[in-house]
Amino acid sequence: MAIKQLTVFVENKQGTMVSITEILSKNNINIRALSIAETQDFGILRLIVNDEEAAKTILADAGYLIKITNVVGVKIGDAPGKLCEALKVLDESNINLEYLYAFMARTEKHAYVVLRVEDNDAAENVLVNAGFHLITEADIRKL
Amino acid sequence: MEQNYYQKSIETMPAEEIKKLQSEKLVKQVKHVYENVEYYRNLMDEKGVKPEDIKGIEDLHKLPFLTKADLRDAYPYGLLAKPLEDCVRIQSTSGTTGRRVVAFYTQKDVDLWEDCCARAIMAAGGTKKDVCQVAYGYGLFTGGAGLHGGSHKVGCLTLPMSSGNTERQIQFMTDLSATILCCTPSYAAYIGETLKEQGYKPEDIPLKAGIFGAEPWTEEMRRGIEETLGIKAYDIYGLTETSGPGVAFECSEQTGMHVNEDHFYPEIINPDTGEVLPEGEKGELVFTALDKEAFPLLRYRTRDICVLSRKKCSCGRTLIKMAKPMGRTDDMLIIRGVNVFPSQIETVLLNEGYQPNYQIVVDRANNTDTFDVNVEMNPEQFTDKVSDVLAMEKSLAGAMKTMLGINPSVHLVAPKSIARSEGKAVRVIDKRKLV
């Protein structure tokens, strides 16, 4: 069920993001969501794209250190408190969150949250049981 | 300045006499080594040199060299010239190129080493009335043991502080009115800065002299330490392979270090050809231990580049002087007083499952060496979590600390991001301005 995230190791150097986005653009890869975690020396870029396998190949060919990571995608209502509700479900089940980032859908009245936890299946189960809709690879392609 | 000598007859001996003394000692020493050290006997046999070919110091050039590689090959007992039961001590290096140098001492060896350090302390103006604070590390490192012994020989009240715990150093220094400080120059600078922050003015600090060595330092750094602490700062040179600090020491003239050449005969050679160079020419420094018993290295190549000079010195000592080393013939770095070989970093990386693609960056900030190692990330270990990458850096730094004895800052970088040239990769960037 999990969706696939592209994880790219990026050094804190001028022009790195330009170069990555340029490569993706030239190959017609569309970025759906993005987050960067940075330290003083390096950053880890996380991307949800329309075609992660193609993106992985072209970035790896360009010399980037890249990995595909399974993450949980969940659909939440576009209203105050909705993210909190989803996170509470995880918290109550003692599922520890490593990181998250969110993006809005263009047409629907929903937001999407990408969650990174230790145990994806457990997180998905508790979210589904609490009435949340997960997003799938197919949903991503349709966005 | 009034001159004190610990062993005046030797320290002011005319050149001709000292040459005679060296010759007598060398003839005996070569015989001792040939008879007792199979490793060196083989080297001499290979070269076709017999002990009877060495009739005086002028024949020294006929003997084969010893290098760091020989010390590794012969570890631990291969260069030992006395039965272990006659030895009373070992000292060791911080762990070089994967294998430490272990040096052995008989009581006589310890005595002559401590005598050398005593000469250094008296050349810095020390007498039995002084309080000598030894803030070099104690233990396997030769710094603490050497100056401690020398301080005893002079009759100073010795404060065996070892390194670190700066608050306590300052407390003992001020409460017990220490007059001589012995430590690495970077630690002296650090103590000086700390005293300054605590509001001490140079005239409030009881110290009058400092004996600083075990790492490279500049004239500029010397002046800085002298001003902050209100002292005269003296350089001292030595290496574990020859005994430890005290092989050469500075006098009040501060223009190079007098070599204790009655014990350690210095030569300058062309590092490429091995040819002995005349006085005043720059080359690799080679030492022959003339009367050490347990670990008597003959023609040991230090890899330090320097110059010897027998110009008359205002302190009255006739011992030949060596300039502060101007560089190294190998890629060894001295960082915070510790010998670091790039090959050690490589060993750690291979052990930890990384490719040996790295770059060492050394700089100096606030008179202390900074030590950074950039390592290319191992693709297998890369994850999407920052905490994982930071943990990898920490674990690598820990492994390097175990190997080297000092802590680097490790930075993981992207694969293939460290420049590779056709020939030798640039493994070391040393930004310190030392000469």
Offer a concise description of the structure.
The complex is a heterodimer of chains A (143) and B (435). Chain A has 143 residues and is of the alpha+beta class.
Characterize the structure shown.
The complex is a heterodimer of chains A (143) and B (435). By secondary structure, chain A is of the alpha+beta class. Chain A folds into two domains: 3-69, VC0802-like; 70-142, Alpha-Beta Plaits (2-Layer Sandwich). Chain A has five helices and seven strands; from the N terminus they run βαββαβαββαβα. Chain A has helices spanning 16-26, 52-61, 82-92, 120-129, 137-142, and strands at 3-11, 31-38, 42-49, 66-77, 97-104, 110-117, 133-134. In chain A, strands 1, 2, 3, 4, 5, 6 and 7 form a seven-stranded antiparallel sheet that branches. With 435 residues, chain B is of the alpha/beta class. Chain B has two domains: 8-330, Rossmann fold, CATH 3.40.50.12780; 334-430, ANL, C-terminal domain (GMP Synthetase, Chain A, domain 3, 2-Layer Sandwich), CATH 3.30.300.30. Chain B has a nine-stranded mixed sheet with strand order 4-3-5-6-7-8-9-14-13, with helices on both faces. Chain B has a four-stranded antiparallel sheet with strand order 10-11-12-15. Chain B has a four-stranded mixed sheet with strand order 20-19-18-21. In chain B, helix 2 (15-36) crosses helix 3 and helix 5 crosses helix 6. Chain B is globular. At the A-B interface, strand 1 and strand 3 of A face helix 11 and strand 20 of B.
